[in-house]
Amino acid sequence: MKLITTIVCTLALAVPATVNADSKNYGCDSVNFGADVLEKMPNAKKLCRGIAEKNGTVYVHYVAEVESRTAADVTVNFLDKDDKAVSRVKFEPTADQTVMVDKKATKYSSLDKGQKLDFWIAQNKWGLYASPDGKAMKIVSVEHL
């Protein structure tokens, strides 16, 4: 009986924390961004959508919307949690780099204006990735809106 009471009390304490946790932003407030990242992306914490760890490195998840695409580069607007454009980034993906669009690997050359993409930045080193285990993209410019 004592064991059952202990389990019930433990669950009663754990459930409110689970229900109140904002899984969409889990971990964003605890990220310790490096100076290199904050210099290039001062709104890094504000734009954070979540975190993931890969090979001992913490990566921060962001959402961006395609602004334009040419044969050589892609320009995206990084969105805050209200889908408002806050920063604009232009980058040059390699021919073999892909991004997930509607759960399907898509080449950057096939993107259309308005499509929303997921991006990742390592917490302590500036770089833009389509996934935490992907290759870094060549960033051409960053503009804060």
Report what the structure shows.
The protein is of the alpha+beta class and 145 residues long. Strand 2 and strand 3 (74-79) form a beta hairpin. The radius of gyration is 19 Å and the shape is globular. The protein is 20% helix and 41% strand. It is built from 3 helices and 9 strands. The strands form 2 sheets. Strands 1, 2, 3, 4, 7, 8 and 9 form a 7-stranded antiparallel sheet that branches. A two-stranded antiparallel ribbon has the order 5-6. The model is unreliable at 3-25 (pLDDT under 50). The termini are far apart.
Specify the oligomeric state: single chain
Strand content: 35-45%
Number of DSSP-assigned strands: 9
End-to-end gap:
61 Å
Average of per-residue pLDDT values: 82
Tell the overall outline. Answer: globular
**Element order, helices and strands?**
HHHEEEEEEEEE
Number of helices, where a helix is a run of at least 4 consecutive DSSP H or I residues:
3
Residue windows where pLDDT falls under 50 for at least 5 positions: 3-25
Rg calculated over all Cα atoms: 19 Å
Largest sheet: 7 strands, antiparallel
**What structural class is derived from the secondary structure elements?**
alpha+beta
Q: How many domains make up the 3D coordinates?
A: 1
Write the layout of secondary structure elements.
Elements: H1 2-20, H2 35-40, H3 44-47, E1 50-54, E2 57-69, E3 74-79, E4 85-92, E5 98-101, E6 104-107, E7 116-122, E8 125-129, E9 138-144
Antiparallel strand pairs: 1-2, 2-3, 2-7, 3-4, 4-9, 5-6, 7-8
